[in-house]
Amino acid sequence: MLLWIWLMLLVCVSKAEEYIVVEAHRDFEVYVAPAQVKNTVSEIEAVIGDYSVFGYASMYSNLAQIDNGTGGHKPMDEDFKVYNEDTIGYIWDNCDYKKDAKKCSYKNNHYLVETYITVDANQIVVEIFLYDAGLQIISRGSETSNLKVSWIKQQAVQTTQTTQMQDPLSIQSQPRNCIQGDCYPVQGMPSKTVVTDSPKEEMPIRWEIPHSLLDGHIQQATMKMWLGARISNE
């Protein structure tokens, strides 16, 4: 009988400890994985700060909304706890997040942010995804930077020069109009016009404004992701 009671107490203590562990991690937690950059053109620089996504994810996580229980959403009553690869080990030390962030997030039942940056000759695309604990994408934010091309057409040039045909010796003998003592030469004297044409000889000039990856693209994409996030109470 005493053995049975001791076993029951041991089971209850074990259950209580398990319950306490679960309760300790019922906070809204999100792990921000390092950004993944795919650059297909070496002449375009695509570098962002190591803490850029993590910093903006922490700053704007309060923009997410949660179910209000009546079919709508409301601002969250508590903020997300945001971790990166430097801090996640202090909270969850049972998984290698650097090796497989999705597996660890699924195992530990929390949210995940992943960033993908794609660079080609014509465009830069920044995409940031928010996964729930079931690895379903519940929100996405994106920003792009496009190559801008203008064509400057080579125009033909025509220059016209007109000169008066006058004999300096005859200026004094020209007919003059005089009004109250002020005299002016009679208009309409012969003139000479010279027209010079410079025909178009070259192709239009291509003017390029290259695309670039800016920290502002990360900021805007992160803000859009959190603004679109709808968190479930379940």
Walk me through the structure.
There is one protein chain. This protein starts with a helix and ends with a strand. Strands 1, 2, 5, 6, 7 and 8 form a 6-stranded mixed beta sheet that branches. The longest helix has 23 residues, at 2-24. It has helices at 2-24, 52-60, 88-91, 101-108, 215-227; strands spanning 29-32, 36-39, 65-67, 73-75, 81-83, 111-119, 123-131, 137-146, 148-152, 157-164, 176-179, 182-185, 191-198, 205-209, 230-231. It has a domain at 27-147 and 210-231: Rossmann fold, CATH 3.40.50. Residues 13-25 have low confidence and may be disordered. With 234 residues, the chain is an alpha/beta fold.
Summarize the structure.
With 234 residues, this protein is of the alpha/beta class. The protein has five helices and 15 strands. The chain has a domain at 27-147 and 210-231: Rossmann fold (3-Layer(aba) Sandwich).
